[in-house]
Every structure is written in C-alpha cells, then in structure tokens.
Amino acid sequence: MRQAELRVRGSGAPRARPQWNLTRKADGRTRTVHLRPGQGLEKVRREVAEYERFRDLIGQVTEVNEAICSARPAVPGGTEEDASPGQGGEKDDMQSGRSPVTG
Predict the structure, then answer these.
(1) Is 41 a member of any domain?
(2) Which whole number is the average pLDDT over 59-73?
(3) What Å distances lie between residue 87 and 79, 92, 96, CA to CA?
(4) Where does the pLDDT of residue 63 fall: very low under 50, low under 70, confident under 90, or very high at 90 and above?
(5) Residue 7: left if φ>0, alpha if ψ -120 to 50, beta else—which one?
(6) DSSP character at residue 72
(7) How far apart are CA 8 and CA 100, in angstroms?
(8) 62 in any annotated domain
(9) Please, are residues 89 and 83 in contact by the beta-carbon 8 Å criterion?
(10) How far apart, in whole angstroms, are the C-alpha atoms of residue 10 and residue 18?
(11) Cα separation of 80 and 44, whole Å?
C-alpha cells in the first residue's frame, strides 16, 4: 500500500450524512472502501495513523542512511587511485578462477 487517505464528504444538505471513504492504490488501481461511523471507522482511523507514523519513521531511517553513505569513504582503507577495478577495490573473483561463494 503506497498511499492511504481518509476523507469525509457531504453535500451540506440537511439530510445528507457524511460519507467516509478510504482510498488507496493497489495493483495499479485505485481502491475505495465506504465506511460508516462506528467501530470500523475508528479502526481505520487508527490504522491510517499508524501507517503515517510508519512512513515518517522510514523517512527518518532514509535520512540517517543517506548521511552515513555520504560520510563513508568511496574506497575503504585507501584512496581511489589505490583501488583495482571492481566494487570497493576488491579482486574480481571471476577473473581469478575462484568461486565467490567457496573461495
């Protein structure tokens, strides 16, 4: 679930009741569930609040991860000139004939 929102809609007419809709994207389509006031609505409100809290926490983790990646040197233990081709200056196991798993 990428996005969830809870909205109330009403026409403002004296007999119109608010209608609560939970709208989300799933499998490339928009899904809407109509809710009535009561326990079900309260449960959905709590779930949406927890989802928003989760998204905020993921955003914080992402910020910390980006800061760590920015502070980390490009090549561990040396400069880029000392590195051989490959990731992180490591020897290419395919060229050496060794299996990366068994050594």
Answers:
(1) yes
(2) 95
(3) 13, 9, 15
(4) very high
(5) beta
(6) S
(7) 57
(8) yes
(9) yes
(10) 5
(11) 52
Q: Which two tokens stand for residue 99?
A: 């299996």
R_g of the chain computed on alpha carbons: 26
Residues across the chain: 103
Q: Is the pLDDT of residue 1 over 50?
A: no
Q: Which two tokens stand for residue 94?
A: 């395919």
Matching residue, tokens 């060229």 = 95
Q: What are the structure tokens assigned to 23, written together? A: 């709208």
pLDDT, the chain, mean: 76
Structure tokens at 62: 């992402």
Is residue 99 domain-resident?
Answer: no
The Cα 25–Cα 4 span in angstroms is 8
Number of domains within the chain: 1
In a domain, 89, yes or no: no
Domain hosting residue 50, numbered range: 4-8+18-74
Q: What's 25's DSSP letter? A: E
Query: Residue 71: which pLDDT band, with cuts at 50, 70 and 90?
Result: very high
**Strands 4-9 and 19-26, how do they pair?**
antiparallel
